[in-house]
Amino acid sequence: MATVLQAAVREDFRGSRLSKIRQAGNIPAVVYGKAFGNKAVAVEEVAFIKTLRSQGKTGVFKLDIDGTQTDVMIYDMQYDSIKNEYLHIDFYAADMTSEMDADVPVHVIGDSKGVKDGGVLQQAVYELSVRALPADLPDGIEVDVTDLDVNDALLVKDLKSGANFEFNSEPEEVVVSILPPDEEPEEPAVDEGREPELVDGDPNAEAEKSGSDEEKQE
């Protein structure tokens, strides 16, 4: 059974109204897409968190906007860690027939031989870019390091792409390696907050405009 998240259209964009939406346990949001256009909505926070946990950031689910259902993905989330609440959500109305790019988290699994012998595991990247139809985007990429010895490494080209998706990252890019005991691992550069990107367009302009307009009114 497909996941359905209920949403209600909102037309009042004043800062005081947005505050009332959050105080009532809802999250201001916007839905946009090449064919969909742009629509301001609100979703119930508890229901959204359940959807996020079940579908992940790359999952496609139904957004029911006052009785009309649309296939969407979570494109961006604004979260206030001090107040422990979501401030704004951007939903992308996905074209289920067009491929898109997405940054997918890398999950290291297994106990490396090299680490057991005193080596140090270094994870060089925490996300990999893949291309697929929206429904075929993986939740994560599992990287098994069980057979890695000291001085061994796994590259993007060593990973098996799924039957329905391809890697966009460079084939020679190091994903994980086992350093000798006397070498300290470097801190990887983590690009936080990146979300799925479109192949045939970039919705950032609409998203940033929508987000900035609402923030100015608050």
TrEMBL record:
<feature type="domain" description="Large ribosomal subunit protein bL25 beta">
    <location>
        <begin position="100"/>
        <end position="181"/>
    </location>
</feature>
<keyword id="KW-0687">Ribonucleoprotein</keyword>
<dbReference type="InterPro" id="IPR020930">
    <property type="entry name" value="Ribosomal_uL5_bac-type"/>
</dbReference>
<comment type="function">
    <text>This is one of the proteins that binds to the 5S RNA in the ribosome where it forms part of the central protuberance.</text>
</comment>
<dbReference type="InterPro" id="IPR029751">
    <property type="entry name" value="Ribosomal_L25_dom"/>
</dbReference>
<feature type="compositionally biased region" description="Basic and acidic residues">
    <location>
        <begin position="206"/>
        <end position="218"/>
    </location>
</feature>
<comment type="subunit">
    <text>Part of the 50S ribosomal subunit; part of the 5S rRNA/L5/L18/L25 subcomplex. Contacts the 5S rRNA. Binds to the 5S rRNA independently of L5 and L18.</text>
</comment>
<protein>
    <recommendedName>
        <fullName>Large ribosomal subunit protein bL25</fullName>
    </recommendedName>
</protein>
<dbReference type="InterPro" id="IPR001021">
    <property type="entry name" value="Ribosomal_bL25_long"/>
</dbReference>
<keyword id="KW-0699">rRNA-binding</keyword>
<keyword id="KW-0689">Ribosomal protein</keyword>
<feature type="compositionally biased region" description="Acidic residues">
    <location>
        <begin position="181"/>
        <end position="190"/>
    </location>
</feature>
<comment type="similarity">
    <text>Belongs to the bacterial ribosomal protein bL25 family. CTC subfamily.</text>
</comment>
<feature type="region of interest" description="Disordered">
    <location>
        <begin position="177"/>
        <end position="218"/>
    </location>
</feature>
<feature type="domain" description="Large ribosomal subunit protein bL25 L25">
    <location>
        <begin position="5"/>
        <end position="91"/>
    </location>
</feature>
<dbReference type="Pfam" id="PF01386">
    <property type="entry name" value="Ribosomal_L25p"/>
</dbReference>
<dbReference type="GO" id="GO:0008097">
    <property type="term" value="F:5S rRNA binding"/>
</dbReference>
<dbReference type="GO" id="GO:0006412">
    <property type="term" value="P:translation"/>
</dbReference>
<dbReference type="InterPro" id="IPR020057">
    <property type="entry name" value="Ribosomal_bL25_b-dom"/>
</dbReference>
<dbReference type="InterPro" id="IPR037121">
    <property type="entry name" value="Ribosomal_bL25_C"/>
</dbReference>
<dbReference type="Pfam" id="PF14693">
    <property type="entry name" value="Ribosomal_TL5_C"/>
</dbReference>
<dbReference type="InterPro" id="IPR020056">
    <property type="entry name" value="Rbsml_bL25/Gln-tRNA_synth_N"/>
</dbReference>
<keyword id="KW-0694">RNA-binding</keyword>
<dbReference type="GO" id="GO:0022625">
    <property type="term" value="C:cytosolic large ribosomal subunit"/>
</dbReference>
<dbReference type="GO" id="GO:0003735">
    <property type="term" value="F:structural constituent of ribosome"/>
</dbReference>
<dbReference type="InterPro" id="IPR011035">
    <property type="entry name" value="Ribosomal_bL25/Gln-tRNA_synth"/>
</dbReference>
